[in-house]
């Protein structure tokens, strides 16, 4: 079963450009992961300092491989002082039975 989630965080005042740069570099690496099916980054139209990342992995094993990738820890360490939250808020999603 695919592993699908939404990660959310808010850039601190004045840190939006640095957060966007970090997430851009990270996105390129994640999209190269064998088990990654989607890694799409958005900002809220009404609040461009609020970031949403829609992620889909082939299965739980692919998601665990993502979590254990060597670039994840350094990315999160660089991100945490730039965001309002203590870490990204993760929401795991399940498809409706009617989805193909």
For the biggest sheet, the summary is: 4 strands, antiparallel
Quaternary structure of the protein? single chain
Helix/strand order, N-terminal first:
EHEEHHE
Q: Average pLDDT across residues?
A: 96
> Which percent band covers the strand fraction?
25-35%
C-alpha geometry: globular
| Spatial separation of the terminal alpha carbons | 13 Å
Structural class: alpha+beta
Q: Helix amount, in percent?
A: 25-40%
Query: Rg, please?
Result: 14 Å
Spans of at least 5 consecutive residues whose pLDDT stays below 50 are none
Write the layout of secondary structure elements.
Blueprint: E1 3-10, H1 16-31, E2 36-44, E3 47-57, H2 60-67, H3 72-79, E4 89-93
Antiparallel strand pairs: 1-3, 1-4, 2-3
Helix pairs in contact: 1-3
Provide tags for this entry.
100 residues, alpha+beta, 4-stranded antiparallel sheet, 3 helices
Describe it for me?
It is a single chain. The chain is of the alpha+beta class and 100 residues long. Helices cover 32% and strands 33% of the residues. The chain has a four-stranded antiparallel sheet. α1 (16-31) packs antiparallel against α3 (72-79). The radius of gyration is 14 Å and the shape is globular. The relative contact order is 0.29.
How would you summarize this macromolecular structure in one to three sentences?
With about 100 residues, the protein is α+β, with helices and mostly antiparallel strands. It has three helices and four strands; from the N terminus they run βαββααβ. The protein is globular.
